[in-house]
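User: Could you check the structure of this?
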Amino acid sequence: MDDSLLEKGDLGPVPPDQEPLPRWRAAERAIYYQIMTCLAVLFLILQYHGLLTCARPPPRARQVAGVPSYALEYAPLVWLDVQEQYFPSDIAAQVENTHPGINYTTIGDLPSLTLDNLDVLNSYGDDGKYVYLTSNIDVTTAPKWLDGVVPDSSGKTNGATSAAIIVNDHGAGLVDVFYMYFYAYNLGNTVLFQELGDHIGDWEHNMIRFQDGAPQEIWYSQHGNGEAFTYATVEKQGVRPVAYSARGSHANYAIAGTHDHTIPDLNLPAGLIQDYTSQGMIWDPAQSAYFYSYDAASASFTSADGISPTGAMRFRGQWGDEQYPDKDPRQKKFFGFYKFVSGPTGPWDKQLNRTKVCPDNGILCIVRDSLSP
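Assistant: Sure, the predicted C-alpha cells are below.
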C-alpha cells in the first residue's frame, strides 16, 4: 500500500488475527475495567481506615455458658519464650503425680484425691496451710510430667486444662477477671552462676478490670509483685492483650526482652536478677481452662459452667514440695537463698477482691500508660 494513502493515526493494514473488536465487545471491556478500578479504590479506602485487612485474624476465645462474653473476648494471649523448657501443665496431673504431706510426712487415710475433693486437705495442717503436694518422683530425676504440654499451632494445650478463669463481679458494672496460668515446674533465676528459687508447681496470672464490659486496666504477675497498665497501652492481637511468660520462672511481662526484677514494681533491662521473654510460641489459655465465679463476701467459688471442679480452688495448701531442708543433698544455699523453695499457694491466695488492679500488698500501685520501665 502507498504510504501516502494512510490516514492520520493509521499504521497500516490490520492483520487478520487482530481485527478490531466489535463496538459492543469494546464497550463490555470498558465497563469491566471501570468496575475493577472502582473495586480496587474501594479496597484501598477500606484498608486505609482499618476496615479490611489481609492479615491472619487473631485467635478468638470460645464462648462459655455462665461466663461474660467480654471475659473471653479480651482474654490474654501468652507468648512462651523461645527457650522455654517447662510448659503449661494439666492442673489435674499435679494431683495425680503428687501426694499430700506435712513436715515431710505423708498424710494417710485419705480418699483418692481429685480436683473435685482436693479441699478435703484443708482439714489438716492449720486449715491446709501446711499441706504440700509432694512429688511422687525425686525432682532431680527430671520427671516427665513436670515438662508440661507444648501448645499446638492454635495455641491450645491439647489434653491439658492448664488455666483457671475467675470472675469477681463487684457490682455497678465493675468486674475483675483473673486469668490464672498453671505450670508444673518453676525454674528459678541464675544469679552469680547459682540457680536459685526452683520449685514444683507454679501459678501466675493476669487480671483485667472491666467497667460495663470494657477493659480498663491489666495486671501482670511477676514474682513477689508485678506491673499494671492501662488496657490501651499494652500490645494486642486484635483486641486481646498479650503477655510474655518469662523463661522458666513464668513471670508475666508486657514486652519481650530482658527484665531485671531486683526492685519490685520496676522493670529494668539489666540487673542482678533477670528474666527473659521472647516470641517463641503462642499459648491461648482460654482454650483449655476451668471457669469460676468468686463471691467476695463469703470468699467462695462457684463453677461458672457447672462442670469446673471447685475443690481445687478451695484448697489452701501448697501446689508443690515443701522446701528441702539444708541437710538434704538436693538442696543448695547461697547467701541466704536456696536452690529449692516451697511450692506456691493456689488462686484463692492471689487477692481476688482487690481495691485496685494491683494487689493490696503495701507496694505503690502504678498504672502505667507507657511500656517503658
